[in-house]
Amino acid sequence: EKFSILPRLANIFDATVSKRVKVTRFIDYAPMVFQRIRASFGIHSDDYLRSVGPEQLLGNMVLGNLSSLSELSSEGKSGAFFYYTSDGKYMMKTVTHKEQMLLKKMLKKYYDHITQNQGTLLVRFLGLHCLSVHKDRKGSAVQKVYFVVMGNMFNTPFEIHRRYDLKGSWVGRVTKDEDKDPSVALKDVDFTKAKESIAVGPERKAKLVAQIERDSAFLRDNNIIDYSLLLGIYLLGGSHPTEEKGGENPESCMG
């Protein structure tokens, strides 16, 4: 079957979000491809739409959870805006026109890689969408925002006590004391100073290293050099829902 990245105009909303905005269009890029990607991760389309669908997104805007389209496109420290869905399952990140073109260009290779590597540690791109605001049905777009939807790896019943963003470099890779918080990702120097090790066992270690090598090769082949390993640590004795049922506590949780 032909690998298509043609967009689909999912919905047109004839609702006034502001006094000047009358029509908002939600564009779904490569819908069938991303549907297969989501299916490979065990995500059903109905569940995804309940969290990320256009009705949900614009509904949040109306309810004030996401006050406006301009808020979705407001820049943070990295130049992008991050928004978590209300159920915590997914994270939306705004991307530039150039970035969304790059994702579409490499989508075939990404699809092949994640379907051939079920244990991949690459970020889970689950959808590429666009919200465009028009003055009317025939008018040109007033504003256009591209965003990708990614799986939230920290959406887990385990309490994440520490999280790290590791690049394999120690230059400037330290978190200021005032920024050290369980919700803030620590860096390479912090990980070294903690003198922690994660017991995964020889078999799992071999699989993990092999997968990291395959994922790194994919990034290298696609000329992507700015990436890191996101790691979450759950400490033995931490709170977990199974404790109430007399279940056993795992020694560690790594993502």
TrEMBL record:
Keywords: ATP-binding, Kinase, Nucleotide-binding, Transferase. It comes from the Eukaryota. Gene3D superfamilies: 2-Layer Sandwich, Phosphatidylinositol Phosphate Kinase II Beta. One of its GO terms (molecular function) is 1-phosphatidylinositol-4-phosphate 5-kinase activity. Residues 1-255 form the PIPK domain. It holds the Pfam family PIP5K. InterPro entries: PInositol-4-P-4/5-kinase_C_sf, PInositol-4-P-4/5-kinase_core, PInositol-4-P-5-kinase_N, PInositol-4/5-P-5/4-kinase. GO terms for biological process: phosphatidylinositol phosphate biosynthetic process. One of its GO terms (cellular component) is plasma membrane. This is PIPK domain-containing protein.
